[in-house]
């Protein structure tokens, strides 16, 4: 079981990258996968062709409120971790042949939600044992990740765009990982679709992390996203898809 987290500035192509990784792993027979959408805007589900609302699924935030914050119910005496875990299985987790899906929903971290947060972490720790890969789309940042999801991950992918702020983002992510004590094995740099390839060497040297490659800029993918089509249905010779395959080969996943 490996946990892969994708981070980066807004609009760098994080969710698309997670969608394309999903396609790579499925087509390479590396399932079951768990996708975790940590973005309150919830774009990832559409990119992999699912509609959680239509499937009758709730976000983790909704389940947390239902389980711990709204009073009532008959679960008194059941430990918090078990309470939220059974809710997630029953009402949160979307299941399909190749991948399962969880959306975190809006944040509930403001205020004193230590109990729900740690209950959720416990529940997820037990739930994720069933999967080969956990792919987390994490625009909210590493601090939220540690508090609510996991303090230990395998690889972090930071997607760079064409601005200097991207480099600052990497530094900031590093600092935060240290501050909030997130443990990881690898911190990789990935060129987003707008990242100029000729900067790769310089960025790799100045940041001192391995650069895995660039996600190709691809009009077909952009049209799929615009029209709400599943990226899993992209043709297998699609430019962006094949570039992500190469990135996963460089990270030794394929
Ligand atoms: N490889 C690509 N080629 C061309 N366009 C792309 C590519 N990847 C993403 N895009 C486009 O860039 C926009 C942002 O993509 P995406 O939603 O994946 O980014 P994000 O980093 O997840 O954004 P956010 O920070 O809002 O969550 C979308 O319109 C998408 O179609
Ligand atoms: Mg996104």
Layout: helices, strands, pairs:
Elements: E1 2-8, H1 14-27, E2 33-37, H2 44-47, H3 60-69, H4 80-92, E3 94-95, E4 99-103, H5 114-127, E5 133-137, H6 142-149, E6 155-160, H7 164-179, E7 186-191, H8 200-207, E8 210-214, H9 219-226, H10 239-250
Parallel strand pairs: 1-5, 1-6, 2-4, 2-5, 6-7, 7-8
Antiparallel strand pairs: 3-4
Radius of gyration: 18 Å
> Please, what is the average pLDDT?
91
Strand content: 15-25%
Associated small molecules: adenosine-5'-triphosphate, magnesium ion
Can you characterise this structure?
This protein is of the alpha/beta class and 254 residues long. It has one domain: P-loop containing nucleotide triphosphate hydrolases (Rossmann fold). Helix content is 42%, strand content 16%. The chain has ten helices and eight strands. The chain has an eight-stranded mixed beta sheet with strand order 3-4-2-5-1-6-7-8, sandwiched between helices. Strand 6, helix 7 (164-179) and strand 7 form a beta-alpha-beta unit. Helix 1 (14-27) packs across helix 10 (239-250), helix 3 (60-69) packs across helix 4 and helix 4 (80-92) crosses helix 5 (114-127). Bound molecules: adenosine-5'-triphosphate and magnesium ion. Adenosine-5'-triphosphate (ATP) binds at residues 8, 10-16, 39, 43, 139, 193, 215-218, 221-222, 225, 240.
Give the key terms.
about 250 residues; alpha/beta; Rossmann fold; 8-stranded mixed beta sheet; about 15% strand; binds adenosine-5'-triphosphate; binds magnesium ion
């Amino acid at each position: 079981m490996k946990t892969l987290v994708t981070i980066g500035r807004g609009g760098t192509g994080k969710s698309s990258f997670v969608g394309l990784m999903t396609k790579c792993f499925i087509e390479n027979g590396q399932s079951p996968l768990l996708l975790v959408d940590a973005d309150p805007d919830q774009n990832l589900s559409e990119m992999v062709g699912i509609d959680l609302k239509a499937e009758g699924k709730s976000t983790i935030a909704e389940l947390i409120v239902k389980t711990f914050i709204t009073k009532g119910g008959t679960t008194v005496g059941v430990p918090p971790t078990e309470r939220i875990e059974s809710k997630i299985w029953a009402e949160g987790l979307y299941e399909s042949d190749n991948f399962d899906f969880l959306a975190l929903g809006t944040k509930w971290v403001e205020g004193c939600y230590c109990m729900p947060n740690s209950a959720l972490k416990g529940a997820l720790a037990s739930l994720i044992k069933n999967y080969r890969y956990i792919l987390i789309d994490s625009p909210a940042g590493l601090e939220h990740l540690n508090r609510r999801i996991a303090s230990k991950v395998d690889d972090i992918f930071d997607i760079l765009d064409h601005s200097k702020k991207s480099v600052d983002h990497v530094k900031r992510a590093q600092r935060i990982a240290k501050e909030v004590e997130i443990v990881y094995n690898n911190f990789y740099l990935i060129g987003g679709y707008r990242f100029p390839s000729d900067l790769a060497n310089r960025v790799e040297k100045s940041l001192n992390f391995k650069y895995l490659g660039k996600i190709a800029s691809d009009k077909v993918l952009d049209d799929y996203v615009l029209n709400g089509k599943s990226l899993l249905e992209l043709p297998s010779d699609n430019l962006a898809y094949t570039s992500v395959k190469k990135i996963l080969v460089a990270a030794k996943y394929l």
